[in-house]
Specification:
The structure is a single chain. This protein has 12 helices and no strands. With 266 residues, the chain is mainly alpha-helical. The two termini are 36 Å apart.
């Protein structure tokens, strides 16, 4: 790939992302969600006392929960509707005629949702630190790795989910199975180690589970099995979630290349 192509890619992605961001900012609900949800989540946890007696501090629990919900709704669900809307409006088809590559189109469309999710997580961290106090992370690299791989996985899953989503209205149904499974079994609303062993074995393979495991390890040193580990041991405990996450990335790339539709279904 030429240097000219490399230098042009950020510019093209940025231009498309700015256009998408303008559409997103016009949605007042999305803006309120990005700013208000972190504050409300932390206040809610404080009010009901979740996490005060567990191994994971309440501040870390707030960050983990918000990170999970942000990836599921702000990134995954929003992008399914965005990709489907652009496809049915022939926007994706027209963009492919220009100089944008397929990857740039998908990335540019996804970038605003990713930015909103990151803003939510950072604000949650800040509010939780003020409200509860927050200790230094056990392993900050694992936190960043978990967030990065989580974003990539759910952008890819959003693109894949458009293959069986006929229009924007049906996105609520087509995304429901993955949303439900991840919310219930990935550990964002309850510890996964409290599930039956057979269910735990399957639940750890869900696409959100590696993110939850890596962030929890990085923030508080709590491993998937509930044990508390130090910095050195956290790398060993991160091996299995990392492998699962990379497998989801590979599967997502393969599925997008094979099944993603650029033209309207009708």
């Amino acid at each position: 790939m030429s240097a000219l192509t490399l230098s042009g890619t950020p510019r093209r992605v940025r231009s498309l992302a700015v256009a998408e961001l303008k559409l997103l900012v016009r949605n007042r609900t999305a803006v309120f969600t990005a700013v208000g949800l972190p504050v409300l989540s932390v206040l809610g946890l404080n009010a009901i006392g979740i996490g005060e007696e567990g191994d994971v501090p309440v501040a870390a629990l707030a960050v983990i929960m918000l990170a999970g919900f942000s990836l599921l709704y702000v990134v995954y669900y929003n992008l399914v509707t965005a990709y489907v809307a652009r496809r049915e409006e022939h926007v994706l088809k027209r963009l492919r005629v220009g100089e944008l590559t397929d990857a740039e189109i998908l990335a540019g469309t996804a970038l605003p949702s990713v930015v909103v999710a990151v803003v939510q997580i950072v604000l949650t961290w800040a509010v939780a630190a003020v409200a509860f106090g927050i200790d230094l992370p056990v392993n900050a690299v694992l936190i960043l790795a978990g967030l990065l791989v989580g974003v990539v996985v759910f952008v890819l899953l959003a693109a894949v989910s458009t293959t069986f989503t006929r229009n924007v209205e049906t996105a609520q149904l087509s995304t429901l199975p993955l949303l439900f499974a991840c919310m219930i079994f990935s550990g964002i609303i309850g510890p996964r180690d409290s599930l039956p062993e057979g269910v735990q074995a399957v639940a750890q393979l869900l696409p959100l589970s590696p993110l939850v495991d890596l962030i929890r390890l990085g923030l508080s040193g709590v491993a998937p099995d509930g044990d508390t580990v130090d910095f050195a041991a956290s790398w060993t405990e991160a091996a299995v979630p990392a492998v699962i996450a990379v497998a989801w990335v590979g599967l997502g790339v393969w599925a997008v290349r094979r099944w993603f539709r650029w033209e309207p279904r009708s």
